[in-house]
Amino acid sequence: MTDTELTDSRKGAPAYTDVAMPGSKAERRPGLLLLTLALCLSGPCSFTLRAQSGPELAASAGQAMQERNYAEAERLYVQLSRVAPGVPEVYSNLGLARFYQGHREAAESAFRTALRYDAHLFVPNFFLGKLNFEKGQYSTALPFLEEAATLQPGEKESHRLLAAVLVGLHRQDEAIQQYQRMLGEDPRDVEALYGLALIYLDQGKTALDHLARSKNPYYQKLAHADFDASRPGWERAAAEEYSQAINMAPKLPGPRLALGNLLLKSKNWDGARQAFEQELAIDAQSYEALYGRAVVALAQGDGDSADLTRAAAIQPEFFDPLPDLLTDAGSPPAAGDVYPSLEASAAKGEFGPAFVLAVMKRGSSRAAGWTREAELERDRLRHDFERKFAALSRQPLDASHRREAGMRLLAQKRFAEGIQLLTPLLKTSPADRELRLAMARAQFQLGRFEEVCRILGRDHQDNPESLYLTGSGYGRLALVAMARIGEIEPNSPRAHQILGDAYFSREMYKEAQQEYESAVSQADDPGLHFSLGNAYFKQFKFEEAKQQFARTLEMDPYDASAYLMEASALGQLHQYDNAVPLLQRALQLDSRLTEAHAQLGKALAETGQPQEAVPHLEMAAPTDKDGMLHFELFKVYRKLGDKERAEAALAASKKIQKENIEGLQEKVAKGEQAQ
What we know:
This protein starts with 52 loop residues before the first helix and ends with a helix. The protein has 34 helices and no strands. It is an all-alpha fold. Among the domains are: 3-184, Tetratricopeptide repeat domain (Serine Threonine Protein Phosphatase 5, Tetratricopeptide repeat), CATH 1.25.40; 559-675, Serine Threonine Protein Phosphatase 5, Tetratricopeptide repeat (Alpha Horseshoe). Helix 12 (255-265) packs parallel to helix 14 (287-299) and helix 18 (351-360) packs antiparallel against helix 19. The protein is 71% helix and 0% strand.
């Protein structure tokens, strides 16, 4: 008998559905694996079976699996394991039959038995990885999923689940590589894009959380302004925040440019011009501010193109392809009186006049000619820079001179050349944080946000600007992934889910609720219902939250967190009798849920069962953060007449509360000192 005659061989890729990220509830039940076992139907056998009983059992078990009669399939595979002991595929299929009945522990035992006989079977490796992932045992799951991904490289679910496990192990960089590998195979893989977006959001939130704890209000305000600027209807708030950031650090370039671009969108031409001119007073090389001022000039009917010529002389790459100046400027008034002077300048080979003429004469027979003239001048400027850099690159430069030349190029806004010159120094001078920060700024300007995050790495915890760049970089990467999802699936619920997650992480629960509701209207998914329930819960809408968690459990009855959250909503509604069985079920599924112990203890106490409440409250007590758990213990001990323990619990509760008050006072004092 050969391996190809068996169902669980290395040749067939099962069809699974989505796999959730650690901490999310988006996992859906796997689809049916149509696995059949044809033992000794052809070829020589490596073991002996009673006449016809082996093939009959195999055929019947396979038929039961196809009919989803998993209990019958389990019975038949158990018989087959006795008739044909030592056949790994029998135990693999036995594990599947048990898995689909929800018998997780028995399934795991069967899968492990299969691997004892053959460590290189796909299905037991995959499902052992999945089972351990569900239990949060990421280190145990990892080798199984690595083996599964190796056995069937084209099977997406093993790679997706492997990425989820890596996230659980806080190995986000490797998880990103897994998702990018999947996108390399299929650029339209929405689930891989979704996984990337979640990681980017989480990484960005981590950096911005560190920033929020820093003592630098400037970058905190700038981060808030960037976020609000991306939200429709929040432009006025963003403009105010940019203005506040400018007042905090009036000599730093950047926020005036962002403010000017924001004002351009609302066609506040005078305000935008003022912001761009203030930026140029600080940074005369700001080609983006020059372009912005040129947009304002065109919008107000001014044909002055000098700013465009200056901008192209600094960064001709910015104009490749030529930006849609007419769209940026709205519908500019006619300026026929400036055409002769513009044409004369364009004829001399100046970029700005040719570009403006191409825009203002769009639709005419000469527009294409002016566009070509602008492109030729742009390319000439770029080739001049390339020639100069080639000459510089041929010079023998030691580390000191290389650093000096590279930093000078960055200051001149020649970002790509400066980065190329400085990159070797990242390895030879890893402790040069000024160099890393300068290169990160340059990569940010070029829109290479992955490189920003890679350069800064984890070495940014004590630098507010690094935290800002990292948080913003990951945020931009998440937006790119979300935009790609929208292109592939214009009505995809994933985009709404990611936006909901972003709002939720910023404690903007009403906005999160709206996004989750939009997602749920498009996809009846347990993870979406769970997220919507959380958004309701945070807004004290406990009845609505309870309904969403109940819907989650209808679709996924093995979700321990959903049992916990529905019970939490019931507790808030003082329906403790209904909460108790839900909390007990949550702990059956996941005994590590300390919060479930805490709530079960309280619910039991409220329903007149103080003795049963004690062990649960005691188990949760070490996690008490506000003293309330110890206060619940105090009440239970007192009700049971245990005066000594009651006094100890009350003392512990007061101590925790006192420490919290002192800690808050210390933070307030530090904040006032920093301010």
